[in-house]
Amino acid sequence: MNDRNIPGAGKIRVSRKTRRRTSALAAAVGVAVGVSVGGVAVPPASADATGAGYLLVGGTGSSNLGVLRESGDRLSGTGPTVPIETGTLTVAVTPNNRYVYVAHTVSGTLQGFRVNPDGSFDRLAGARLDPGQPIVGAVVSPDGRWLFATMGSVTNEVRTYAIEPSGALAPVASATIPGPTSGLSIPTISPDGRFLFAPSFIGATMNSFAIGDDGRLTLAGPQVRTGERPALPSVTPNGKFLYITNEGSNDVSAYSISPTGALTPIGRFPTAGTPHGMAITPDGRYLYLPQTTGMGVNGFAILDNGSLAPLPGASAPSQPGHFPGRVVLSPDAKRLYIIDTLSAGGTEKVFSYRVEQNGALEPTGEPPVDTGVVFSDGATGVFITP
Fold first, then answer.
1. CB-CB contact of 351 with 364 (8 Å)
2. Separation between Cα atoms, residue 144 and residue 126, nearest integer Å
3. Each residue of 90-118: pLDDT tens digit?
4. What pLDDT is stored for residue 13 in this prediction?
5. Pair type for strands 64-71 and 53-59
6. DSSP designation for 23
7. Domains in the chain, ordered, with CATH?
8. 52 band by pLDDT with thresholds 50, 70 and 90
């Protein structure tokens, strides 16, 4: 079915019982929901908002987007959340910090927004996709030319869209993730924009694609094995290493990336609990990882060969009733923000830590900030500086 632009009409919410990625897949496969939203809530902001950064947190179970303002090394709420559609697993931002694209697994749509300096959102014309199947992951190329979206339920394809100057999306091409099953594939791109890496959540494999000058994808190397239920991949800033969290086997798979994009396994490194969305420092020395069932965040040193070693002083235990699902570094990398995936109290919170020069984590002592969203899963925490 071809993508088409359909004006918004309403909004529904996902039950809080939707607590795992596999539940989202079942909902995406078994339910055909035609859902869209109308006007966008505009969070209020102070007069000095210019230059502020915003941490965006997607509500996978509540069909809204939390917008938290960072200014003066402090994080705060901005007011009402932005309504989106159902089952979001990915929020992607263009390199110029102008446009945001939110993908939805349950409603099977993707919507683009323009972010204003005061943190308000304008819906983009020509930037809503409705392919008639779940849209799982979305990632923007480092040059801002392409958006790649993974679509499907039991099997996934990766579709390329050209990002026009207005933020509108134009279809370009499609490539299939190899194998009989993939499902819930959230991709990532190398910092130089040459390669896209897409896991198979069901098949427990990782694939690498070369990105052509025209945005088309071609396989760049043999498929490699991961641990069970590989979820969220990340590449080091120098483009040498790829890591992916394995939710089913409680470990992290590490790979070296060749100049042609082929992957060579380095090893698998155990975690204290179910690993999720990691953060890597800009110098490529440290990796921080939330472990939802391990009740905390741990830091690792990235060694010269790409292996991971536990980092002393870089543990951040969870507060009672909070289950961390994603960590995000502030734009200056001096702070680490820990985002709940679930909390016993309802809406998710963000906890703040200072990142020391040796990679250790120190609590800031600031109270947690409420995101206003319920159940935040996938790659749904990202910074933007309009």
1. no
2. 17
3. 999 999 999 999 999 999 999 999 999 88
4. 34
5. antiparallel
6. H
7. 52-384 (2.130.10.10)
8. confident
